[in-house]
Design brief:
This protein is an all-alpha fold and 305 residues long. The protein has 2 domains: 53 residues, no CATH class; 232 residues, no CATH class. It is 52% helix and 2% strand. The chain is built from 13 helices and 2 strands. Strands 1-2 form a two-stranded antiparallel ribbon. Strand 1 and strand 2 form a beta hairpin. Helix 4 packs across helix 11, helix 4 runs antiparallel to helix 12 and helix 8 runs antiparallel to helix 10. The radius of gyration is 23 Å and the shape is globular. The relative contact order is 0.11. It comes from Sphingobacterium faecale. Pfam families: Abi_2. InterPro entries: Abi_system_AbiD/AbiF, Abi_system_AbiD/AbiF-like. This is Abi family protein.
Amino acid sequence: MYTKQAFTIVQQIAQLQERGLIVNESDDAEHYLSHISYYRLAGYWWPMQQDKVNHIFKPGSKFGDVIALYNFDRELRILLFDVIEKIEISLRTKLIYHLSHEFDPWWFQNFEIFQSAPDLVKTLSAIEEEIGRSKDTFIKEHKKKHKDDGRFPPAWKSLEQTSLGALSKLYGNLKNNIISKDIIAKEFGTVNHTYLPSWLQSISQIRNYCAHHSRLWNRNLPGSPKLLSNPPHAWIVDIPKSHEFQYLYIHLCCMKYLLNIVQPQNHFTPRLEGLFVKYPNIDPNALGMKENWQNEELWQYPNET
């Protein structure tokens, strides 16, 4: 039976100090713990503990370093959310445009062009919920004008309400002989339908972590993007091994590759590099960053000044 009772902030700080974490008066620990919960910060001090059972910290572990890790991770999520937004909007645009022309504006309700009917039912259910919650005028006006039409609003209205997760599922679930599926992959520089679905899936998962303010630093990520053997655009030479795909770096590379297509004049590299400069105590290995990653052709494109 669980018997622990809630601690006051003063008790929380005392416990951390008893376990070996250095908490200085200048750290303003009471302020931080009154705004950031103990267990949210625990994800950042966990690697600092030498005894994970008794939660004893390694010598020299500091509360200030915990806050630096937390702030680095927060700024990293903000950066990635901005990058992913551009990829998401581009994917939405391409799905709406190409599939609506290849079929019709209600292609996303056409079970004949999808591989898995049960998966499509789940996706359509999610889309229906999102449309039902929508406060956008164009959705309200469509429902008012076409209340006798049992279909969803057309793709250019419905999919504007749809999450990246649902969009990536729609794309991945398309049958492989659908012409638009390869067209979209080629426009993103991923050659054909074989690779892009896994990229979108991993990016969607990371987007959800960002949206829910979940920790990215030192996190084991699910999903393994399938890598092209000879990408048509700038890529990396020092490719992580498959067991390193749990770290963020390879996913960052996929984002950068797609972003270079969507927004060629982007500043992803200097913004990411700037975070490591701003927080010099951050261990890049916790994100799986390769040595001299910023010198790779992928991260050098475009020539940023």
